[in-house]
Design goal:
The protein contains three helices and 67 strands. The protein is mainly β. It has five domains: 315 residues, Single-stranded right-handed beta-helix, Pectin lyase-like (Pectate Lyase C-like, 3 Solenoid), CATH 2.160.20; 91 residues, Immunoglobulins (Immunoglobulin-like); 105 residues, Immunoglobulin-like, CATH 2.60.40; 211 residues, Sandwich (Jelly Rolls), CATH 2.60.120; 79 residues, Sandwich (Immunoglobulin-like). β43 and β44 form a beta hairpin. The termini are far apart. It comes from Hymenobacter frigidus. Keywords: Aspartyl esterase, Hydrolase. Belongs to the pectinesterase family.
Length: 846
């Protein structure tokens, strides 16, 4: 694009243009154009979420230089969105192009999330899009070149571009040509191979991705790559399966980068007969033909005559991208562009690495260092690219002294080309303390200190001890509660404090409210404060036993063996949710001991959640839920919490769970749960489990277990359910994945609280406490109970409701020992039953 060209709008961060942000310029552009509207973007790092709507046709972005005009953001799949919910794959993109006839020249599109999860640099869905001399930087799923629908094919053209990533980083369903591009498959931190493309070409579409004269250099490490795998041609994919098409013509491969097999299936359910994966005369950097004798048998090696089907005109039809602008197919002068500059500090040496976006012989790379970020930089190493096949560069330097930091950048120069200076990397040994998690309020009862809560503390580059100090009324421990103090000193090892669990409890001497900060301080480091608040009350701790369980392993009926005598039998009800058909994903039946209940939003049970299929999609909807009821019979029941295990199978796209309850069957009242604990302690990202702040559920393919358990409080204290009244709980799920075979999983739903006694005195209630210790146990437990009467029983159940043992306590005794040796490892419920009722306690067998 000529420098002398007059542009319609200019974007400049320093205020010298029409706008300071790219999105503002897009918003100001006219709609419905039939000729190019040019937006010149001066050098700068534009961190903004950019979207070109469908009515802004014929926009052309022209960057001042590809190395220095960067459009960047950091959204990723599963990241909480500002207005609620989470991002999925497609809307994680830094730049989204929905308009037709878009073009970009000399622009870097970037997502800085890292290796994973899915985090797009660009999502281009508009027809006839052109990218010339651009860079696309990311990790998993960098470039989505996609049809907006299978019936609306679109065409894209990438020429002289650089694209990097780690997994499936060129993916989608469009017809696209990549011509003379550098495809850089990055070194991954995880061991094993990865994948460059993941095309899901629709049935009936003649072409998918065509790579013409592209280069795939070697990377820095041991990560090798398959050229591609077939997205949406696999177990659980919707029918018809994708007819995946990827063809490489005259590609050049770096040493060891492409696996001998060449291509991969997605899983055992892939139909290889639907795939067109092919190569034509692939060569190494010495010009020798690549040995393709070990390629998978269902891929193809094209012959000369076959190549006529893959010219630009054959693939793109009447659309000629070379006519979009004079620069598109003009000779390309490769620019200097330092990419992926990283530094990793070791014990004595910092190792640096970077790669060139385009291999250029004779470029000199200098590694420069300063002791302050904007200070004087001096070269600590210089090297020159010996040939245009050299893409990867390494350097090293001594680590800074403890308490200090070094700042580095790479300067790349060659006569006749614009110099490029990389981003700055800081290697720090400045003392740093970090503490994770905020702590819910503490309550201390008359029978001892409050229950402890925990958070994680770590320190790096420390030059002195770390002192932890608790505020008045609170105590802290760093050995799991074995010893409690008001102040603790930690001594660093090798200038670091490894991640340490800090326990906190309220142990005040007088009734009242207490608050303050646990302070963590070390010389030279910023003091870190962990806020705590709580109260000591003049009442004993409420009793909380399991009152009712729906194991969901065999059916949705509650367990009669576990149910309190004060509650009515109950089965859950699905509202616009349907159990799995057991065939879309055969390993995920409707009910199983491994996963519990599996369900989705489509009546055929195929695991689909989209709004197009009648489901809630990625946002919670009050019309889609599972309902549980708890009905008190002869006595009032106090209910304090709900426990459950839940996750999703096969996805984390907007996978959410919320719990709401009512004592009028949602006629006149409704309340959200008020928070609780998740698998890692406190719930993540500010979630409480309420409808507006739901839990973000993980992907779980190995069966629900303790790492998927959530403990949710129904009220800040508890709620009393009078005899004859019903508590209705509704559990809501959502899922943003557009594919079938995505199931919500639910198991071991438990309601906890206390069946009220006839006596109004708290001491009488306390007599009904059931204590089992030690817990967990290996060979034997002791059950402490009220004085046994004739006919009393101790019953032991698995959490699926099966009775595994029964014991008769000796009349008059208050302790009974139970042998555990023959029991399988796992969780059990111990129930003590006599004429006064049933009391229970959960135990774990190690």
């Amino acid at each position: 694009m000529a420098r002398g060209q007059a542009f319609d709008l200019t974007v400049a961060q320093d205020g010298t243009g029409s706008f300071t942000t790219v999105q503002a310029a897009i918003n100001a552009a006219p709609v419905g154009r039939t000729a190019p509207f040019t937006i010149f973007i001066r050098n700068g790092r534009y961190k903004e979420k950019i979207s070109v709507p469908a009515n802004k046709t014929f926009l052309h972005f022209i960057g001042q230089s590809v190395a220095n005009t960067v459009l960047t953001f950091d959204d990723f799949s599963g990241k909480p969105m500002p207005g609620g919910g989470t991002y999925g794959t497609s809307n994680s993109a830094s730049v989204i192009i929905n308009a037709a006839d878009f073009a970009a020249f000399n622009i870097t599109f970037e997502n800085t999330t890292g290796e994973s999860p899915q985090a797009l640099a660009i999502n281009v869905q508009g027809d006839r899009a052109v990218f010339q001399g651009c860079r696309f930087l990311g990790g998993q799923d960098t470039v989505l070149s996609q049809n907006p629908s299978a019936t609306s094919p679109v065409k894209h053209y990438f020429r002289n571009c650089y694209i990097d990533g780690t997994v499936d980083f060129i993916f989608g369903s469009s017809t696209a040509i990549f011509e003379r591009c550098v495809i850089y498959a990055k070194t991954r931190s995880a061991a094993g191979a990865s994948y460059i493309t993941a095309a899901n070409t629709p049935q009936g579409q003649a072409y998918g991705y065509v790579f013409r004269n592209c280069i795939i250099p070697a990377n820095h490490g041991l990560t090798s790559y398959f050229l591609g795998r077939p997205w949406q041609n696999s177990t659980g994919a919707s029918m018809p399966f994708a007819n995946n098409k990827v063809v490489l013509l005259k590609a050049t491969y770096g040493a060891g980068i492409i696996r001998a097999e060449g291509w991969s299936t997605w899983d055992a359910g892939t139909n290889t007969a639907l795939i067109t994966f092919a190569e034509y005369k692939s060569r190494d950097f010495r010009g020798r033909l690549v040995n393709t004798s070990q390629r998978v048998p269902w891929s193809r090696q094209l012959q000369d005559a076959d190549t006529a089907a893959y010219t630009k005109s054959a693939v793109l039809g009447s659309w000629d991208p070379c006519t979009v602008a004079a620069a598109v197919c003009a000779p390309f002068a490769q620019p200097i562009a330092v990419t992926n500059f990283r530094g990793v500090r070791g014990a004595n040496v910092t190792a640096f690495r970077w790669n060139a976006s385009w291999g250029i012989a004779g470029v000199q790379y200098e590694l420069l260092r300063a002791t302050t970020r904007r200070g004087t930089y001096t070269a600590v190493g210089t090297q020159t690219a010996a040939s245009d096949s050299l893409y990867n560069f390494l350097a090293s330097d001594a680590v800074p002294a403890a308490g200090s930091a070094f700042h580095y950048y790479v300067r790349a120069t060659k006569a006749g080309l614009a110099t490029h200076i990389s981003d700055t990397v800081t290697i720090s040994r400045v003392p740093t303390l970090t503490a994770t998690a905020s702590l819910p309020a503490f309550t201390q009862y008359t029978n001892g200190p409050s229950a402890p809560r925990t958070y994680q503390l770590a320190g790096d580059n420390l030059t002195s001890n770390v002192t932890l100090t608790a505020p008045a009324g609170f105590e802290i421990s760093v050995n799991g509660g074995a010893v409690w103090n008001t102040s603790i000193v930690l001594t660093p090892t090798n200038n670091a404090i490894p991640t340490t669990t800090v326990s906190v409890r309220l142990n005040a001497a007088a009734v009242g409210t207490y608050s303050g900060n646990v302070t963590q301080a070390s010389a030279g480091a910023a003091t870190v404060n962990t806020a705590v608040t709580g109260s000591r009350v003049n009442t004993p701790e409420p009793i909380s036993n399991v009152l009712q369980i729906w194991s969901m392993r065999v059916s949705n009926q509650d367990s009669a063996a576990v149910r309190s005598a004060n509650l009515m039998a109950s089965a859950s009800q699905l509202r616009r949710l349907f159990v799995s058909n057991g065939t879309t994903v055969p390993t995920i039946p409707a009910y199983s001991a491994r996963n519990g209940q599996a369900f989705s939003a489509t009546a055929n049970g195929d695991g689909t959640w989209t709004t197009a299929a009648g489901g809630p999609g990625g946002n919670l909807n009050r019309g889609f839920y599972e309902q549980f009821t708890v009905t008190a019979t002869g006595r009032a029941v106090r209910i304090d919490s709900l426990l459950l295990k839940s996750a999703f199978y096969g996805t984390v796209s907007n996978t959410k769970l919320a719990v709401v309850y009512s004592r009028s069957n949602f006629v006149s009242d409704s309340a959200d749960v008020v928070g609780g604990k998740g698998p890692g302690g406190s719930l993540l990202t500010g979630a409480t489990g309420g409808f507006a702040v739901p839990i973000l559920l993980p992907n779980q393919t190995n069966g629900l277990n303790a790492s998927n358990q959530y403990r949710l409080a129904l009220a800040n204290t508890s709620l009393l359910l009078p005899a004859g009244q019903t508590l209705t709980l509704r559990l809501y799920w959502s899922c943003g994945s557009g594919s079938p075979g995505r199931y919500a999983l639910l198991r071991d739903v438990q309601v906890k609280g206390e069946a009220q006694t006839v006596s109004a005195t708290r001491s009488a209630v306390a007599k009904n406490v059931l204590v089992v210790y030690p817990n967990p146990a290996a060979s034997e437990v002791t059950v402490a109970h009220t004085a046994a009467t004739a006919g009393a029983q101790i019953l032991v159940y698995r959490f699926d409701g099966r009775q595994v043992a029964a014991f008769a306590p000796v009349p008059g005794t208050v302790h009974t020992r139970l042998p555990l040796g023959a029991w399988a490892t796992g969780h059990y419920l111990v129930v003590y039953a006599d004429a006064q009722g049933r009391r229970s306690a959960a135990i774990s067998k190690e």
